[in-house]
Amino acid sequence: MILWIILAVIALIIALSGIKIIRPFEKGLVERLGKFRRQAQPGLNFIIPFIERIVKIDMREMVIDVPPQEVITKDNVIVTVDAVIYYEITDAFRVVYNVRDFKIAAIKLAQTNLRNVIGEMELDQTLTSRERINAKLRDVLDEATDKWGVKVTRVEIKKIDPPQDIMDAMSKQMKAERTKRAVILEAEGYKQSEITKAEGDKRSAILKAEGQAEAIKRVAEANKYKLIAEAEGQAIAIVNVFKAIHEGQPTNDLIAIRYLEALKAIANGPANKVFLPFEASSLLSSIGVISELFKEEEKKDSPQKKNKK
Question: pTM to 2 decimals?
Answer without folding.
Answer: 0.53
